UniProtKB/TrEMBL annotation:
It catalyses: orotidine 5'-phosphate + H(+) = UMP + CO2. NCBIfam families: PRK00230.1, pyrF. Catalyzes the decarboxylation of orotidine 5'-monophosphate (OMP) to uridine 5'-monophosphate (UMP). One of its GO terms (molecular function) is orotidine-5'-phosphate decarboxylase activity. The lineage of its organism: Bacteria, Pseudomonadati, Pseudomonadota, Alphaproteobacteria, Hyphomicrobiales. It is an enzyme of class 4 (lyase). One of its GO terms (biological process) is 'de novo' UMP biosynthetic process. InterPro entries: Aldolase_TIM (IPR013785), OMPdecase (IPR014732), OMPdecase_AS (IPR018089), OMPdecase_bac (IPR047596), OMPdeCOase_dom (IPR001754), RibuloseP-bd_barrel (IPR011060). GO terms for cellular component: cytosol. Homodimer. This is Orotidine 5'-phosphate decarboxylase. It comes from Bradyrhizobium valentinum. The active site is at 66 (for ompdecase activity), 68 (for ompdecase activity), 68 (proton donor), 71 (for ompdecase activity). The gene is pyrF.
Amino acid sequence: MQPADIAAQDRLIVALDLPGVTEAEAMIARLGDSVSFYKIGYQLAYAGGLPLAQQLAKSGKKVFVDLKLHDIGNTVARGVESVAKLGATFLTVHAYPQTMKAAVEARAGSGLKILAVTVLTSYDDGDLHAAGYRLNVSDLVEARAQQAQVLGVDGLVSSPEEAAALRKIVGHQMHLVTPGIRPAGAATGDQKRIMTPARAIAAGADYLVVGRPVTEAADPKAAADAIQAEIEQALA
Ligand SMILES: O=C(O)c1cc(=O)[nH]c(=O)n1[C@@H]1O[C@H](COP(=O)(O)O)[C@@H](O)[C@H]1O
């Protein structure tokens, strides 16, 4: 799918990083028609969130299952097959060649798309060096993007800071999904590589993943609407 084909409203993915299904359902009800794409990650998935993912997909919402898989190939493949049955649109794996290869093979024939997480948005060069890497963030993101493209991965997760460079490498063949989104004035929290929604879209991001700036806002629907308006303006 080319970026131009993505409905503007689907470009905002709200991360349901909430303690349980009750809280998630309340948030989904509050957000109503403002949000069409939800992400279910560690916190909610381990608290009964996977049946909710299936239910949301059946109800017509799009779902991103963010499990950031990374294990031996066989285990990754079997996990991907299970997630494919939920009706989700996206599933994350870490961008290691064995892991990406197993995930891509296992999703064949399903509607599930595999996203490779390049370098987490909470990492800077110092964090990478502390973890034993010699490359800096931008070089490792680009190297992993090239490997992901060769392996047939459907999309990349990176900071919007890398989006323009990644677009040059992968063209429009891969989805660029960017967390690390902070509307002007929003608290940074533990994110280190951040951009506003408008700048992320201008840099070439297809999808923006936003958690706390929406879910912890006094009025989550107003916060989501403001981000949607910023996205639409940036696309115009
Ligand atoms: O895979 C992700 O979605 C992800 C990758 C990454 O590099 N950084 C990152 O923040 N995320 C997720 O994106 C969401 C960002 O949440 P906020 O920082 O609250 O907006 C969280 O659910 C993270 O798990």
